[in-house]
Amino acid sequence: MKLDFKVVLTAAFVLTFALMFAFYDDIYLFFVGPIAAFDYTMDGNGVAKVRWETRFPAKTRLAYGTSWDVLNYTEEAADFTTKHGTDFVGMLPGTNRVFGVIAYDEQGKVYSTLPFR
What we know:
The protein is α+β, with helices and mostly antiparallel strands. It has two helices and six strands, in the order ααββββββ.
C-alpha cells in the first residue's frame, strides 16, 4: 500500500491544528507566561511596592530575594484575582533584587515565571 504524500500532509496539518485548538490556552501561556504586567518601586522610606497582573484570575505567591540561591516567598493570595501586590518594609535602596511569580488558576494548574529583576 502506497501512501499519498498529500493525504499524509493534510492529515498532519489537521491533527496539528486540532491539537493547537484543544490546547490553545496552555500553548499561549507557555510562550507569553502568566504575567501581564509587573512593577517594582522603592519609596524614600525603605518601602518596596511590588505589583503584578496575571492574564487570568489566579492566586499567586511572589518569590523574592537578593539572588536565586536564597529565596523567600509571600503567602498565597486568598482570592482568585488578576491584580496582585505586596509591600516590603525595610528594604535598602540600591540592593539587587530578583523576583518570580507562581500562579495557581481556578482549575489547579500551576504556572511560574522565569526569573526577572
